[in-house]
Amino acid sequence: MTKKTSTSTKKTSSEKTSSDKKPSKTASLGRKAPANSIKKNREKSAVVKKKVVKKTGIKNLSESELAQKEANRIINSSPKTKSAKRPSKSRTVSENTLLLDAIIAGLEEKKAKNILVMDLKNTGNAVADYFVIADADSRTHVEAIADSVEEVVVKKNGEKAFHIEGHRVGEWIIIDYINVVVHVFQKEIRDFYSLESLLADAEFKKIN
Known about the structure:
The protein is an alpha+beta fold and about 210 residues long. It has helices at about 1-25, 35-55, 65-75, 95-110, 140-155, 185-195, 195-200, and strands at about 115-120, 130-135, 165, 170-175, 180-185, 205.
C-alpha cells in the first residue's frame, strides 16, 4: 500500500511539473524564437526545392543551382500555344516609361511590397528591357496584385499582356509586356530564387 501511495505521489508530482511548464510555452506563442523561424524558413525552402526537382528532373544539383535553373526556365518561358510567337521589343523610351508608370501604379494600388525596377538593357541578351519585381504575403495577395497590374495597364495604356503565367499556383506570377516583364512573388519564393542576384548586372531602382 505504501509503495502504491508513493507511486501515485510521484505521478502527481510529475503531472504538476508538466503543468508548470505549459504557461512558459503559451507565453512564447506571441513571438517565435529565432530558431523556430529559421526552421520554418528551411522547411519552406525544402518544399520549393522539391518542386524544382520535380519540374527539372535533376537531383544532383545544389540548392542555388536548382533555383537558378528554375528561375531561368520561368524567366525565358514562352506561351504554350505554338501559333503565338513572341513579338520583338519595339517600344520607344517614352512608351516604356508610360508602361512602367502604369505597372507601378497597379502594384501600389494593392500594396505590393519591395517593388524593384531592373533595367536590363545593358546586360546582354535579355528577354526584356525591364523587369519589375514585387512580393506579397500570400497567394491571394499575389493574385490580387497581378490582377491589379493587368487592369491598370489596360485602363491607362489600353494594352493587354502578351503572356501571363503562374495564376494557377499563385507563388510566382509573370506578366509579360514584351519590353517589360512583371514578376509578383510570395516573399519566401522571391527570397529563394533571388532574381536580383541572378541578374546582378542590371541597374536597380527601388520604388518602396
